[in-house]
Amino acid sequence: MSADDKLKELGLTLPEVPTPVATYVSFKRVGDFIYLSGQGPKRADGTYPTGKVGADVSIEEAYEHAKQTGLGLLAAMKKAAGSLDKIEVVKLLGMVNAAPDFSQHPKVINGCSDLFVAVLGDNGRHARSAVGMGSLPNNMTVEIEVIVRVLP
What we know:
The protein is an alpha+beta fold. It is built from three helices and five strands. It has a five-stranded mixed sheet, covered by helices on one side. Helix 2 crosses helix 3.
């Protein structure tokens, strides 16, 4: 089953690839690798869920924010490679806007990782770091960046 069919089966739709708000690009291709700029859980109206995970935002809510971020990253991958069926996720860096005593960062970033595996199968499995940050742009709850390889 194609990645597009899996998205449809899951009832998910890819958003538009966001336009960068500063001096950078959404992705950069170097040979067979695509480096995707960090994204957050942008809503359809252009706003972001905000707050500190572990204080203002629950793990479950932040998991959904990471999943939403993953959809945006899949959209950028598709735009960069032409098809999600030609993508292998190599490395993911997940950043959580965390309360000082919060320690469950991996449970939050699983929202994105689980999505990638659900849509891309084994090509969605990746190396990963999930870390806490004192703040993130726009006070958003999560930001995720990814490195992918375009398959021959």
